[in-house]
Amino acid sequence: MSAVDLVNELSARFGEAVQGAQPTHDAFPTLWIAPEAMPAVHRYLKHEIAQPFPLLVDLWAIDETARHHREGQPPSGVTIASHLMSLQRNADIRLKCALPANDPRAHSIAGIYPNADWYEREAFDMFGVHFEGRRDHRRILMPPLWDGHPMRKDQPARATERPPFVMTAALFDAEEQALAADPEALGLPTQRDGVELMILNYGPHSMATHGVFRIVLALDGEEIVAARPDIGFHHRGAEKMGERQSWHQYIPYTDRIDYLGGVMGEMPYLQAVERLCGITVPARAETVRIMLCEIYRIMNHLLFYGTLAQDTGAMSPVFYMFTDRERGYRVIEAITGARMHPGWFRIGGLAADLPEGWDALVRDFLDWMPSRLDDYEGMVMRNEIFRARTVGIAAYDTATALDWGITGPGLRATGCGWDTRKQRPYSGYQNFEFEVPTGHRGDCYDRARVRVDEIRQSLRIIRQCLDHMPAGPIKADHPLTTPPPRERMLHDIETMIHHFVGASWGPVVPAGEATGQVESVRGLTQYAVVSDGETTSYRTRIRTPSFAHLQSIATIAPGLTVADLVAYLGSIDYVMSDVDR
Amino acid sequence: MIGMTLTAIISTMLIMVLLVVAGTFTWVERRVLGFVQERLGPNRVGPFGFLQWVADTVKILTKEDRPPPGADRVAYILAPMVAATPVLAGFGVVAFGDGLSLANIDVGVMFLLGMMGLTVYGVVLGALASNSRFALMGGLRAAAQMLAYETFLGLSLLGVVMLAGSLSLTEIVHAQRDVWFVLLQPFGAALFCIAGVAAAHRLPFDLPESENDLVAGYLTEYTGMSFGLFFLGEYLAVLLVASLAVTLFFGGWLGPWLLGPWLPGPIWFGLKVGVIALIFIWIRATLPRPRYDQLVRFAWKIALPLALGNLLLTGLIVVARSAP
């Protein structure tokens, strides 16, 4: 069934409630729905339609008050957009509803898609949108005492636009008080069968939480009765910065969304921007992008591997894996000049061509890894104690995973072989031979298994990049390629002007909306950008996998012991910067 | 009077030596771990970083040390002493050579077991006194773990006591003139070593501390020298367990076979303890940590029956051999 059929079906069923379709620069149909019909349409798409949409990829808000180019869209002050995915159809749909700017009230869909809960909290926190049918509206990313909704267009993006911040003793105490783990406010039980539970504030400064992340636990002895994850300690306002930095300047920020994914974060952002600009990236640039992404996937998975072993108490593997990562980073360093955050992709291509001798470096790394992986297999994956600590721990099935928006290795460990690189090849992944490893139990061990196997598949992909690296330009021949090729810039005045404009104001990206999706190291990363024909983005929405993964902890953690929780957290493989953005 | 003064002087000297040995052991451990883990380990202070432990000691001694708010002050300060003192006292009966022990009492094995059992009081006391939930959980784990492991620690070495017919450490070593008990009591030796690792709270049995999930367990709120005392107690406990293993199963100060006379007894003893301590480090570098319930289940359901079986078998053999 094509996108047009889907739109027709929804229009026929919901009649007037479907207010119209909006043209965008991506392949997904975008429909405007009347606010009061949102729950019904979502319920229909999840439960009633043939080949349903079980996965709510994302839900976010757009403040439309300062936007000029809204052709083909109904008037709106604040727009709520939700992005649904059907694995069976391999198709997505985006639903939008228009709300007034001064008191935006939408209808909650958390009863239909459980993972909408945090997204709705975020929309409230950042835009002040209230959702009918929610128990409460609590901030999620901003501090509890924050005043205002920072993503609204009338809120400043720079600290210098506000009065100077002064931390007084009273303010400090108030902020600290507001963060105290109050079981009642968090909806935590304090008793079970007449036994008083111990409330344990786990994090935000615990080594087990892999970053500034807090879980408030209700414990009966060592057993977790209830868990409430609490995020926002790593929030840097990356989406707001997207509206402030030029399209080109924002690239390095995308590296730091998932700070272990390196260039992986640049991919979906650039996909979206290049779609808006209508740029086709040359084959060599695409292949180099893939190669670097896969090296970063290995870097991340090695860190995951070592720290998961560390979380179960094995102290040595992480050091061996850092030796390997050092070798990998040497390759990355030689190619990009940086290690963790190269900011190396450009709109329409790459910052520079591969250096001389890159192939020998990559080959060395490819030859080095396999025997090391064999060693780790015996040291970690076949270790009896490690298996006792991970097999059957924190298991969930595919349906639960989709309910909570879990993607990537966490989804594949349940036996669902969804991988964006395979299902929706981008940047030329269709030209590569690789397998998508899956598990079947969906437990900590399988999540580790999937990632360990992915390392080998990534090595395979890199080997193919090495053997078949296309020749040709590394930048697209397009006026919006930023910066333009330097040789030409120094020889013809037109390219010189483009360079000047791109460097001083930043490139002007045509108005419209576009989306980029990639299989990042942790799962589905999606950038939905709105351009209003300016030098900066009008709205940059970043959907990160870790955000969804952490939300599921409250459902999966009960019944585990504290030690299991640590193994479980390790097996999720999240990065707090990727959660809070 | 002179005798008592002499004992006091020798005890003080022994404690001094033990402190230096424990300090050196921390350096050895960090270097060995560094070697195993493809990194350098401490290599800046003194030759090969040997003086690192001295620097650490100075640091730990000069650090501010105060109980956290809400803590039980007296118990908080007392706990590290309760943890370290019994281990030091335990060394009083260890026979470093023939006749070379501070107190050659005829129930040496019992005394040592008692002293090692007492260390858990320090841990639990410290955990309770700290007014921290992480410490509390560490303390609970320590209590459960020690209860489970003390039982078969004692049972595992009773076979040796039966064979030697004595509870005196010196007598037990003498009984190994012909053959070391590790050959006669392989099960006992294996079980003793497992329980010994647990008694010393070393990975994979460091659940009371378990830095990956409990921050630092019972040590969470400790700092400065009170932390240092706990730390010292742990490292000395490793050496004490190693000494006991050497005495009970590896011939004490006796050299292997004909090599015996080549080196003096105490040197042999030191070498053997060193090898066992190295194995402790090796295990720490290799193994993950089982979960608390898995550990306790192993102790009660597998190790304890095995220890009892071993005891029964040994008893039958001893009786059969002594029967005319």
From TrEMBL, chain A:
InterPro entries: NADH_DH_suCD, NADH_Q_OxRdtase_suD, NADH_quin_OxRdtase_su_C/D-like, NADH_UbQ_OxRdtase_30kDa_su, NADH_UbQ_OxRdtase_49kDa_CS, NDH1_su_D/H, NiFe-Hase_large. Its main location: membrane. Residues 1-172 are annotated as: NADH dehydrogenase I subunit C. Residues 31-160 form the NADH:ubiquinone oxidoreductase 30kDa subunit domain. One of its GO terms (cellular component) is plasma membrane. It catalyses: a quinone + NADH + 5 H(+)(in) = a quinol + NAD(+) + 4 H(+)(out). It comes from the Bacteria. GO terms for molecular function: NAD binding; NADH dehydrogenase (quinone) (non-electrogenic) activity; NADH dehydrogenase (ubiquinone) activity; quinone binding. Residues 311-581 form the NADH-quinone oxidoreductase subunit D domain. Its EC number is 7.1.1.-. HAMAP family: NDH1_NuoCD_1, NDH1_NuoD. PANTHER family: NADH-QUINONE OXIDOREDUCTASE SUBUNIT C_D, NADH-UBIQUINONE OXIDOREDUCTASE 49 KDA SUBUNIT. NDH-1 is composed of 13 different subunits. Subunits NuoB, CD, E, F, and G constitute the peripheral sector of the complex. NDH-1 shuttles electrons from NADH, via FMN and iron-sulfur (Fe-S) centers, to quinones in the respiratory chain. The immediate electron acceptor for the enzyme in this species is believed to be ubiquinone. Couples the redox reaction to proton translocation (for every two electrons transferred, four hydrogen ions are translocated across the cytoplasmic membrane), and thus conserves the redox energy in a proton gradient. This is NADH-quinone oxidoreductase subunit C/D. The gene is nuoC.
UniProtKB/TrEMBL annotation, chain B:
Pfam families: NADHdh. This is NADH-quinone oxidoreductase subunit H. It is a multi-pass membrane protein. GO terms for cellular component: plasma membrane. It is found in: Cell membrane; Membrane. PROSITE patterns: COMPLEX1_ND1_2. NDH-1 shuttles electrons from NADH, via FMN and iron-sulfur (Fe-S) centers, to quinones in the respiratory chain. The immediate electron acceptor for the enzyme in this species is believed to be ubiquinone. Couples the redox reaction to proton translocation (for every two electrons transferred, four hydrogen ions are translocated across the cytoplasmic membrane), and thus conserves the redox energy in a proton gradient. This subunit may bind ubiquinone. The chain crosses the membrane at residues 6-28, 74-97, 109-130, 151-173, 179-200, 235-255, 267-287, 299-320. GO terms for molecular function: NADH dehydrogenase activity; oxidoreductase activity, acting on NAD(P)H, quinone or similar compound as acceptor; quinone binding. It catalyses: a quinone + NADH + 5 H(+)(in) = a quinol + NAD(+) + 4 H(+)(out). Keywords: Cell membrane, Membrane, NAD, Quinone, Translocase, Transmembrane, Transmembrane helix, Ubiquinone. NCBIfam families: PRK06076.1-2. Its EC number is 7.1.1.-. GO terms for biological process: aerobic respiration. Belongs to the complex I subunit 1 family. NDH-1 is composed of 14 different subunits. Subunits NuoA, H, J, K, L, M, N constitute the membrane sector of the complex.
